[in-house]
Structure to design on (274 residues):
């Protein structure tokens, strides 16, 4: 194999691993995976197959596997609850509907028309403010468990999830914020957020699966590598984030989002000045 081609494949594989790890972390940490997957290739000027919708699909399949494996016992119980009118499974289904409807009608618009660094910086900051507001007076209210979620609560959290089509919002971030504003405990808000994300991530992956048609053997290797690292990283991100929220707040993630927003604006100005 010519040296130039070998180096190109090595570079693509390394970029795939980096983006797989980033996706696995940021899909579940409330910092916006879409923002990171758009900004990183833009910042480092990565192009080609790792900066494509097809590659994003592969990474989302990885995080979907992480969710299914981590919550495998929960999903068994959820399937059993389908026989109950007030079962949690039906509330998950109800909460998924807003994202399904929004995705069906607005997916192409959000996927192609709003991938703008300025807009991402703005949404990162806006949701950071909402995080800080949701944490204000956290201990002053009686907090509820995930089992107490009503159909109305599930729909409200579902509407919040639908806004995550906008890059920079963060599916987990905005749904955890909604859960906190409905007086759920942090760890329960996070757990409900991740369970609610499973059908949403599955639906988004299936919706974009058509982009994998005609993928070559080399691309498949790169996609599978990214998906593998996304799945492994995502599993540990979910596991330790739920533990984190038993004792700590959203504030560190809000401050990180502010810093990232500032870094994006600074990078834009630096490029314009150059």
């Amino acid at each position: 194999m010519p040296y130039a081609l070998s180096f190109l494949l090595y570079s693509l594989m390394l970029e795939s691993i980096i983006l797989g790890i980033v996706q696995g972390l940021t899909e579940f940490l409330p910092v916006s995976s879409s923002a990171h997957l758009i900004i990183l290739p833009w910042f480092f000027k990565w192009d080609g197959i790792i900066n494509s919708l097809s590659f994003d699909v592969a990474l989302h399949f990885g995080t979907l596997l992480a969710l299914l494996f981590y919550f495998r016992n929960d999903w068994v119980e959820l399937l059993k609850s389908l026989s109950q009118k007030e079962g949690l499974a039906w509330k998950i289904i109800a909460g998924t509907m807003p994202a399904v409807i929004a995705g069906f009608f607005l997916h192409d618009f959000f996927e192609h028309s709003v991938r703008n660094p300025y807009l991402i910086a703005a949404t990162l900051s806006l949701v950071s403010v909402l995080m800080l507001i949701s944490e204000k007076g956290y201990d002053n209210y009686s907090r509820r468990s995930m089992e107490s979620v009503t159909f109305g609560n599930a729909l409200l959290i579902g509407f919040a999830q639908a806004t995550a089509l906008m890059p920079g919002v963060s599916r987990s971030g905005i749904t955890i914020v909604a859960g906190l504003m409905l007086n759920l405990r942090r760890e329960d808000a996070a757990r409900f957020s991740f369970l609610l994300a499973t059908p949403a991530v599955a639906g988004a992956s299936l919706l974009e699966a058509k982009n994998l048609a005609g993928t070559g053997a080399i691309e498949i290797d790169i996609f599978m590598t990214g998906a593998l690292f996304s799945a492994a990283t995502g599993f540990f991100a979910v596991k330790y984030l739920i533990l984190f929220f038993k004792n700590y707040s959203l504030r560190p993630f809000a401050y990180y989002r502010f810093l990232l927003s500032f870094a994006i604006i600074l990078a834009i100005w630096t490029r314009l000045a150059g």
